Write a sequence for this structure.
């Protein structure tokens, strides 16, 4: 018991041997199956792609600063928006969120690693390979300045634009294969998360005592099984069409372009919930700790998360309101899309109730969480506008939609991820990030974000479609595109400060200790960074906040649950 | 700055803390993902029934693959027998049952291969021929590829068993493999119904 | 922010402003959008206001006690109330939305409607008026529709290649053009004028310059236009030697493989019908003014003005270019 722990801690604190390590650092990281190292690799990998895809976005905004600009050719622009979208969804969003999940889940449930460590490593490396393959496309074909043979079919690769006759050459194939491989990796990680969560919780941690983050990743992983597979299937069908002469989406042979849309969006819509639920997960951990209060309505939050998971599988054709599904089809998807706002709203209200009556400490993680709360509210409301199908008949495929989904992806998800970085960086590295630089990052990024994405709604309302490399003067779009571009540059500066903070704090950050935020879940009971085995002895828990119980023996959660 | 908080460790022999086996849970997860992939191919097949612009139709060229189906579905029984045998520690009976499973599965593949040869050379149905050809070969081929993977794994299990390396302690792993095999058979029931019954 | 959007839009005086409807479908959408915007604005003010209040009022102040605040774990009544109220709002919005869907998609079609078949191409629009025997491209002419005696225009649409989308914001929401599929929509502007839009579904390299121009005309003007479009190309070019030469160049080059000029041997359908090219204000589906100089440049090399366009350069010499331009200029 206590003796065992203190003996093991003593062992843990033994200074390292003086002989050199048997493995080089590089070899150690490449062959690791430790969930913490794999998690960090996912995160670093995603950050690299975030910078690259962000650069692609900046190039596009420069091209669109003024009408009839000649900064990049139409062909290069079309590749840029395809690569930007594909990269951000598959090689930034998914890896960064699963990276955090990988790192945190075993720690939060008192386990020593994931259920299948080798599968974990395999999933990372195959996803990484997919990303590298996708980016090699820039160097194929006619070379980098013509942007090589990078895909130019849009991130949803609608048929029949992707048929061999309309996309000769290999650009579509780079998209298909790169994304397919990443899908395999994502599915592998999802299997790991479910098996770990169901089978490896420490003693006393019933499902209803798990941190909400673990619940959300469980829901997300179940969604991955149902949602990513349709994309994999559709991509296999596309390959059969392109290489074996198949006709799945061959409209000349009686095939259906709309079938691709259904298959893609059956994946595509749950995918965005797969991206947003982990963002909710981070907020569920950050907001209570910085409000100094337990999360309000834990059971309702679990029910809402599961509800969102289920309902989001039924809304996909709201991306297809303009293809002529007929009043019955349109009406059904209006209904299901509006319904999903109910559990989502419940989550927002519970966060509000958590803050209410608390003692909110505005350190950088909480500042980003605050940004998330407002921005997610707005994003949800523009989503409701889009769910009204006739309104969508105007807004779909316009800059209004682009603004809406960036509001979710950047304003909600990326802000939540930034919060997660500042919150868990001390645990991962043993050092605090600079609070001062964090504030610069926050304010610059906030201003840049709002300049770009608030005003981006306007050109959409004024008739500007998406995916156009230039536009006519005299449509009233010029001023707004200019403002959007300026915001992009400001966000880029904020990002650079963030990256600098990440790197600099690793070497010069203040030492963090095991629990710098005075938090309540199990990961804060380990050293920072934790030892390879996480816990010397498997913990036993009696409530949802084991460390709260220890710190407040007079008022433990276990008496209320 | 706080020291590492000591987590209480209660040795409480009465409270049983038993969670499911991770191999079985992992296999169920894989099965759900694979089921979703098959579902999309089945949906494509159903959607395109009757829509081919030319070429052979199902009614013209398809015959019920009764023999192959019986073999494949019986192999579910034999693999179940293998798992039961292993649970009781009977390695020899387990090997026999596994061998039968591999044999039955292989017969199924052979009947499929013969059927395809007839379709391609005699009936002129290829993957390029029309929508029926594309969706038929994709769906049945996807299933067959899963049968092949299953057979390879079953063969490996059989070899380990014959080498005396498999014991009662491995029975949950074998059960996970048998779950995969039952899934493959279950998919065949759906494919058979959709392609050979409904589609014709 | 949400409220001032329509206001800002009005200031912009944009010809493609969705909040400046000029036909019934766009007007129905506008009313629905005002309802939805009001509801979402109200939600924003209430929830956002409460959030803001909570964030400010409950911040930790330096002279606060060290005690943690009271730990409140939840409340079933509160959860119930903020589940039921959103459900009621959803039901209300859903019913209003359904009404507009039916109003637009299931609207009864008057007998006097004008039928136009629209075929989307990479990167131009083909318009056929089956009952009037008119085939044209890129500039859609329709009669205005008097609300007391409606003569809407019904568009039956498909695509010859990839997906496209017909979006003229002031007239209606967009509807996609999909190969091997027919979609329909209708428009009925009561006021004559030129209505602008562009393709709204990414269709390849020159998606950005696949512009839409809809000319709503008085019944007299429309009838005159139809009459003109029904005529074949003028046969007698004896007064214009250069144009006559140009016609010969045209008919002896690969032009006829893609283009139709009614009354000649040119019957190609891959590219736009040129029979009345000179009657159009623009070429290349909108982005280029139809002047002889522009037309000549276009024919010399389309990729200069619209890189990625599917029309190749015919590598004609200067004299041939002059002649062909003169000929096309006679095609009123």
């Amino acid at each position: 018991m206590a003796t065992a722990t203190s003996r093991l801690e003593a062992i843990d604190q033994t200074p390292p041997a003086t002989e050199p390590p048997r493995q080089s650092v590089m070899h150690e990281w490449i062959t690791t199956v430790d969930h913490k190292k794999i998690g960090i690799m996912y995160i670093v990998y995603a950050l690299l792609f975030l910078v690259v895809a962000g650069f692609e976005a900046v190039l596009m905004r420069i091209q669109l600063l003024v009408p009839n600009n000649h900064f990049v050719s139409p062909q290069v622009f079309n590749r840029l928006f395809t690569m930007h979208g594909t990269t951000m969804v598959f090689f930034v969003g998914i890896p960064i969120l699963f990276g955090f999940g990988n790192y945190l889940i075993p720690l939060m449930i008192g386990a020593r690693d994931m259920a299948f460590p080798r599968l974990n490593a395999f999933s990372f490396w195959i996803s990484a390979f997919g990303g590298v393959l996708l980016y090699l496309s820039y160097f194929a074909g006619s070379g980098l300045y013509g942007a090589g043979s990078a895909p130019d079919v849009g991130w949803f690769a609608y048929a029949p634009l992707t048929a061999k006759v309309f996309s000769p050459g290999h650009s579509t194939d780079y998209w298909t294969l790169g994304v397919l491989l990443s899908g395999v990796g994502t599915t592998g990680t999802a299997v790991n998360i479910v098996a770990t969560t169901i089978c490896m919780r420490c003693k006393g941690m019933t499902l209803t005592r798990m941190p909400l983050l673990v619940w959300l990743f469980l829901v997300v992983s179940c969604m991955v099984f149902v949602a990513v597979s349709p994309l994999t299937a559709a991509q296999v069908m596309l390959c059969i069409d392109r290489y074996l002469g198949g006709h799945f989406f061959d409209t000349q042979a009686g095939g259906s372009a709309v079938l691709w849309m259904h298959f893609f969006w059956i994946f595509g819509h749950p995918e965005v919930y797969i991206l947003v639920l982990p963002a909710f997960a981070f907020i569920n951990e950050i907001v209570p700790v910085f409000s100094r209060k337990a999360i309000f309505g834990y059971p309702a939050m679990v029910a809402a998360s599961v509800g969102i998971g289920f309902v989001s599988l039924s809304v996909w054709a709201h991306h297809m309101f303009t293809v002529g599904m007929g009043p019955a089809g349109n009406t059904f998807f209006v209904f299901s899309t509006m319904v999903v706002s109910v559990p989502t709203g419940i989550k927002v209200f519970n966060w509000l109730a958590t803050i209410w009556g608390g003692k909110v400490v505005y350190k950088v993680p909480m500042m980003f969480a605050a940004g998330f709360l407002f921005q997610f509210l707005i994003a949800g409301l523009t989503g409701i506008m889009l769910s009204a199908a006739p309104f969508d008949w105007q807004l779909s495929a316009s800059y209004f939609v682009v603004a809406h989904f960036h509001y979710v992806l950047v304003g909600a998800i990326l802000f939540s991820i930034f919060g997660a970085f500042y919150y868990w960086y001390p645990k991962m590295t043993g050092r605090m990030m600079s609070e001062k630089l964090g504030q610069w990052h926050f304010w610059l990024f906030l201003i840049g974000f709002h300049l770009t994405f608030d005003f981006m709604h306007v050109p959409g309302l004024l008739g500007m479609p998406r995916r156009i490399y230039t536009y006519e003067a005299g449509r009233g779009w010029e001023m707004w595109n200019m403002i959007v571009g300026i915001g992009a540059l400001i966000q880029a500066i904020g990002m650079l400060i963030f990256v600098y903070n990440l790197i600099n704090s690793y070497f010069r950050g203040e030492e963090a200790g095991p629990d710098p935020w005075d938090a309540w879940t199990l990961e804060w009971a380990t050293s920072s960074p934790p030892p390879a085995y996480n816990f010397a002895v498997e913990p036993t828990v009696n409530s949802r906040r084991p460390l709260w119980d220890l710190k407040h023996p007079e008022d433990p959660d276990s008496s209320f649950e | 700055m706080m020291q590492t908080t000591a987590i209480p460790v209660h040795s409480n022999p009465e409270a049983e803390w038993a969670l499911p086996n991770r191999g079985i849970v992992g296999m169920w997860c894989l099965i759900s993902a694979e089921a979703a992939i098959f579902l999309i191919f089945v949906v494509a097949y159903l959607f395109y029934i009757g829509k081919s612009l030319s070429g052979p139709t199902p009614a013209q060229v398809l015959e019920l693959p009764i023999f192959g189906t019986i073999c494949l579905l019986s192999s579910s029984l034999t693999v179940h027998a293998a798992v039961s045998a292993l649970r009781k520690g009977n390695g020899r009976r387990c090997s026999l049952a596994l061998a039968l499973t591999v044999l039955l599965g292989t017969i199924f593949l052979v009947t499929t291969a013969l059927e395809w040869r007839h379709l391609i050379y005699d009936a002129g149905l290829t993957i390029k021929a029309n929508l029926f050809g594309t969706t038929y070969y994709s769906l049945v081929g996807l299933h067959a590829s899963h049968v092949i993977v299953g057979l390879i794994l079953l063969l490996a299990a059989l070899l380990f068993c014959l080498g005396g390396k498999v014991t009662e302690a491995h029975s949950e792993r074998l059960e996970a493999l048998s779950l995969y095999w039952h899934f493959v058979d279950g998919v065949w029931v759906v494919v058979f119904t959709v392609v050979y019954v409904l589609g014709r | 922010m949400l409220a001032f959007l329509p206001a800002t839009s009005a200031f912009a005086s944009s010809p493609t402003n969705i909040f400046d409807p000029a036909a019934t479908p766009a007007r129905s959408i506008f009313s629905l959008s005002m309802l939805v915007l009001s509801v979402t604005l109200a939600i924003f003010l209430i929830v956002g206001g409460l959030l803001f209040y909570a964030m400010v009022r409950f911040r930790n102040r330096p002279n606060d006690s060290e005690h943690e605040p009271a730990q409140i774990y939840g409340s079933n009544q509160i959860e119930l109330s903020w589940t039921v109220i959103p459900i009621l709002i959803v039901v209300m919005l859903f019913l209003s939305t359904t009404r507009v869907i039916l109003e637009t998609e299931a609207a009864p079609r008057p007998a006097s409607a004008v039928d136009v078949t629209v075929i989307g191409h990479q990167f131009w629009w083909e318009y056929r008026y089956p009952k009037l025997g008119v085939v044209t491209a890129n500039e859609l002419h329709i009669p205005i529709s008097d609300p007391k005696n409606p003569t809407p225009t019904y568009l039956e649409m498909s695509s010859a290649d990839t997906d496209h989308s017909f979006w003229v914001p002031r007239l209606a929401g967009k509807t996609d053009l999909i190969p091997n599929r027919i979609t329909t929509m209708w428009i009925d502007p009561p006021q004559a004028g030129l209505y602008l839009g562009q393709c709204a579904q990414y269709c390849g390299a020159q998606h950005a310059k696949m512009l839409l121009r809809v000319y709503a005309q008085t019944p007299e003007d429309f009838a005159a236009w139809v009459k003109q479009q029904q005529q074949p190309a003028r046969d007698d070019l004896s007064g214009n030697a250069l144009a006559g030469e140009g016609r010969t160049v045209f008919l002896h080059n690969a032009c006829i493989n893609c283009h139709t000029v009614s009354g000649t041997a040119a019957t190609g359908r891959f590219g736009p019908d040129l029979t009345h090219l000179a009657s159009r204000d623009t070429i290349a589906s909108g982005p280029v003014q139809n002047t002889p100089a522009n037309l000549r440049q276009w024919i010399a090399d389309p990729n200069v003005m619209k890189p990625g366009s599917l029309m190749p350069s015919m590598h004609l010499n200067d004299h041939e270019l002059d002649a062909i331009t003169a000929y096309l200029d006679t095609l009123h």
